[in-house]
Write a sequence for this structure.
C-alpha cells in the first residue's frame, strides 16, 4: 500500500510530538531535516511505515535519545503481564477459546502510543471493555485454524508494546493446536515509536512458545526490502504469516503470500483501502492469495 496524501500531515505531526515528548525546545533544525528528507521521497514508491522509520531515525539523532519510548514500552509490557492470568482465564472460559484469543490479540492492537493516535490508559481500558462484546468485522479465523493444523512453520509479525502480551496468549493457543508447527515471532530491528523490539519479546516470555527474531530494520512495519537476509529467509519459508497492525498491512498488502492480517482499523485511509469501517476488528486472509 503506497503512501496517501492524507498521511503526510500525520507524519510531520508525529515528528513534532515526539520532539515534545523528549523535551526538544528548539525544533527548527529538526523540521528542516524532516522537510528536506520528504522533498527527496518518491511517494509513488514508498509506504508510510518506511517514511515514519526514516523520520524517527532523524528524531533520534536530533534529540540524542535512541529509544524515546523505552519507559512506555516497559510500563505497558509489565502492566499486561500482570493482567495475563485474568485475560487467559476469560479466553479459556469462552465458547471458542481460539477465536477469543484472536479477538484479544486484535483488541491489544489499540495499545498504540504513536503520537498520531494520542491514546491514554483510560482510552485503552474503555476499548477493551467495548470490543470484548463485539464480533470481528472480517472473520477468517476458522480458515486460519484449518491452515494452522497443517502448517510446518508460522511467522508472526508483532507490533506494539503491551499488545505483545496478547500475542503471546494467541501464540500459546496456536502451539496447543499444532505442537509440531515451528513458530517465529518477529520484532523491529531498532526502536521506532512504541513498537516491540527483541528486548520486549524476551521480557514478556515470548521465547517459551516461539523463536524470537529481529527483522533487522527500523521501519514502523515490515518493509521487506529493508529487512535482514535471515528474516527474509524465514518469511519466504513460512507456510503462514500473521501480520499484526496497520503498519504491517500497509507494508504487505500487495504481497502474494499466505498472510493473515490481524488489526484494528484505527485510520480512515487504511479502513477505506480495506473496505471496512473505522475502529473495527479484522482477521483477514490476504485477498491476493
Amino acid at each position: 500500500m503506497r503512501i496517501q496524501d492524507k498521511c503526510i500531515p500525520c507524519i510531520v505531526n508525529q515528528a513534532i510530538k515526539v520532539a515534545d515528548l523528549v523535551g526538544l525546545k528548539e525544533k527548527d533544525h529538526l523540521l528542516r531535516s524532516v522537510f528536506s528528507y520528504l522533498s527527496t521521497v518518491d511517494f509513488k514508491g514508498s509506504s508510510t511505515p518506511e517514511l515514519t522509520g526514516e523520520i524517527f531515525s532523524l528524531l533520534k539523532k536530533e534529540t540524542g535519545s535512541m529509544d524515546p519510548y523505552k519507559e512506555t514500552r516497559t510500563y505497558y509490557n509489565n502492566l499486561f503481564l500482570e493482567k495475563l492470568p485474568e485475560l487467559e482465564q476469560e479466553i479459556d472460559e469462552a465458547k471458542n477459546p481460539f477465536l477469543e484469543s484472536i479477538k484479544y490479540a486484535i483488541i491489544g492492537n489499540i495499545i498504540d502510543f504513536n503520537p498520531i493516535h494520542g491514546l491514554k490508559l483510560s482510552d485503552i481500558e474503555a476499548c477493551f471493555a467495548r470490543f470484548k462484546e463485539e464480533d470481528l468485522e472480517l472473520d477468517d479465523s476458522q480458515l486460519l485454524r484449518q491452515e494452522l493444523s497443517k502448517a510446518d512453520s508460522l511467522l508472526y509479525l508483532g507490533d506494539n508494546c503491551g499488545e505483545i502480551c496478547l500475542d503471546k496468549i494467541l501464540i500459546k493457543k496456536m502451539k496447543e493446536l499444532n505442537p509440531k508447527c515451528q513458530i517465529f515471532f518477529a520484532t523491529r530491528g531498532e526502536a521506532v515509536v512504541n513498537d516491540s523490539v527483541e528486548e520486549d519479546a524476551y521480557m514478556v516470555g515470548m521465547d517459551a512458545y516461539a523463536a524470537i527474531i529481529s527483522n533487522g530494520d527500523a521501519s514502523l512495519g515490515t518493509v521487506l526490502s529493508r529487512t535482514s537476509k535471515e528474516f527474509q529467509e524465514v518469511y519466504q519459508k513460512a507456510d503462514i504469516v500473521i501480520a499484526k497492525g496497520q503498519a504491517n498491512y500497509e507494508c504487505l498488502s500487495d504481497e502474494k503470500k499466505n498472510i493473515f492480517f490481524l488489526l484494528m482499523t484505527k485510520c480512515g485511509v487504511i479502513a477505506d483501502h480495506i473496505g471496512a469501517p473505522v475502529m473495527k476488528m479484522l482477521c483477514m486472509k490476504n485477498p491476493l492469495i
In short: The mean pLDDT is 91.
